[in-house]
Design a protein that fits this description.
Blueprint: E1 6-8, E2 11-13, E3 17-19, H1 28-37, E4 41-43, E5 61-65, E6 72-77, H2 86-99, E7 104-109, H3 115-127, E8 132-136, H4 150-153, H5 156-169, E9 174-177, H6 186-194, E10 199-202, E11 206-208, E12 211-212, E13 219-220, E14 230-233, H7 238-255, E15 260-264, H8 270-278, E16 283-286, H9 288-293, H10 298-312, H11 317-320, H12 331-351, H13 365-371
Parallel strand pairs: 3-4, 3-16, 4-7, 7-8, 8-9, 9-10, 10-15, 15-16
Antiparallel strand pairs: 1-2, 5-6, 6-14, 11-14, 12-13
Helix pairs in contact: 3-5, 5-6, 8-10
The structure holds flavin mononucleotide.
Residues 20-23, 45-46, 75, 77, 79, 81, 108, 136, 139, 177, 204-205, 233-234, 237, 264-267, 286-289 line the site of flavin mononucleotide.
Length: 375
């Protein structure tokens, strides 16, 4: 079995499968369960200093299923960050680090546009023992009304300033989590990395309206008959996530060597993870997949990733990280590559054409006959 262990920004993980921030990291019980089942690291549900300002509604999820198999492939949520008190979280971070000292626990944090609030939340969480931070600059619903989440993440100047605040006090690695709801994800990514972030997480959910119930004529998820646009996740977002990760990884290689990328979006199998790693991710996060399949899904994920690595002779994650980035070109380059390939093929074909009697030596008789044939 291939070695799945990996070290990202000095964080040693037994495998690259990380619980993404959301319901699967909602309290110490479930985070402990994730460690017990073997997840490589856990990012807790996003927290803030003033949980009393966070008021959730129900229902807050809506799902898309395939017509025939009924499998869920798309998931919209209008869930906010954690509504549990900050003090409770600090107690639980300490408890988890006592019980699982060797495992990687990452705090996802979000605050209002105030330097003192960002510094306070970083300092208190790291004093509680968390191993790293993820800055949630990317939740697309609810919090932007308070100028938090993607309200910051879509603005590179704010990303740079806020990341700088976190970096001014952080003593552990910091990842900035990006929103895909921008035209060029490279812009906020560069801003975060310029401010000193150790890595990038991408993507958070895609702003969406899941659908309209054709009986009631109300959009989903319907809260007392009304809704608000939410965040889309699950299998359906994987192609968009892969594109964003490819762009971020390319930027990191060119301008910010050594920075990490944690790929997110529709990962449900070890083979999905392999694709994210081939496009430059150091590790992958899973959120909706755990809501569909439970914490035990990490075991088949490990088996599948390991089998993929064995098949290709890769001994470690580093052996194939970013391997497939080299195959991206501009469209104009594709046209030139194809023209050159056609020219080469034609030259090879022409070389077999008989032009003079002495070329008939008998050695390439079948190929030479083919070259003279039609059909
Ligand atoms: C119900 C739900 C709640 C989420 N809550 C958070 C959150 O609190 N903080 C955060 O950074 N991302 C949150 N996310 C986004 C996920 O971490 C992830 O970026 C996104 O869902 C794409 O990955 P997936 O397809 O594996 O779910 C949430 C996603 C879902 C589905």
């Amino acid at each position: 079995m291939a070695d799945l262990s990996t070290t990202v920004n000095g964080l040693q993980m037994p495998n690259p499968f990380v619980i993404g921030s959301g319901p699967p990291g909602t309290n110490a019980n479930v985070i402990g369960k994730a460690f017990d089942e073997g997840w490589g690291a856990v990012i807790a549900k996003t927290i803030s200093l003033e949980a009393e300002k966070v008021i959730n509604v129900q229902p807050r999820y809506a799902r898309l299923r395939s017509r025939e198999s009924r499998e869920i492939f798309g998931w919209e949520n209008i869930e906010l960050i954690s509504d549990r008190s900050f003090d409770t979280w600090i107690d639980e971070f300490k408890l988890l680090k006592d019980k699982y000292p060797g495992r990687i626990l990452i705090a996802s944090i979000m605050e209002e546009y105030r330097k003192d609030a960002w510094c306070e939340i970083v300092e208190k969480c790291q004093d509680a023992g968390v191993d790293a931070f993820e800055l949630n600059l990317s939740c697309p619903h609810g919090l932007p009304e308070r100028k938090m989440g993607s309200a910051m993440g879509v603005n590179p100047d704010l990303v740079e300033e806020v990341t700088g605040w976190a970096m001014s006090v952080a003593k552990v690695p910091v990842w900035a989590k990006m929103t895909p709801n921008v035209t060029r994800i490279e812009d906020p990514t560069s801003a975060a990395l310029r401010a000193g972030a150790d890595g990038i997480s991408a993507i958070n959910t895609i702003r969406s309206v899941l659908g309209v119930d054709l009986k009631t004529l109300r959009p989903e998820p319907s809260v007392e008959g009304y809704t608000t646009p939410g965040g889309y996740s699950c299998q359906a977002v994987k192609p968009i996530a892969l594109r964003n990760c490819m762009e971020i990884a390319t930027l990191i290689l060119q301008d910010f060597p050594g920075k990490a990328l944690s790929g997110i979006g529709g990962v449900e199998t070890g083979l999905d993870a392999a694709e994210f790693i081939l496009l430059g991710s150091d590790c992958v996060q899973v959120c909706t997949g755990v809501m569909k399949m439970g914490y035990k899904m990490v075991k088949p994920m490990m088996e599948d990733l390991s089998a993929f690595m064995d098949e290709h002779g890769f001994n470690s994650i580093d052996d194939f990280k970013g391997h497939s980035l080299q195959f991206f070109k501009t469209h104009a380059e594709l046209v030139a590559i194809q023209a050159a390939a056609r020219e080469k093929k034609k030259a090879a074909h022409d070389a077999k054409m008989i032009r003079e009697d002495a070329q008939w030596t008998g050695d390439d008789f079948v190929d030479q006959s083919d070259a003279l044939s039609r059909g």
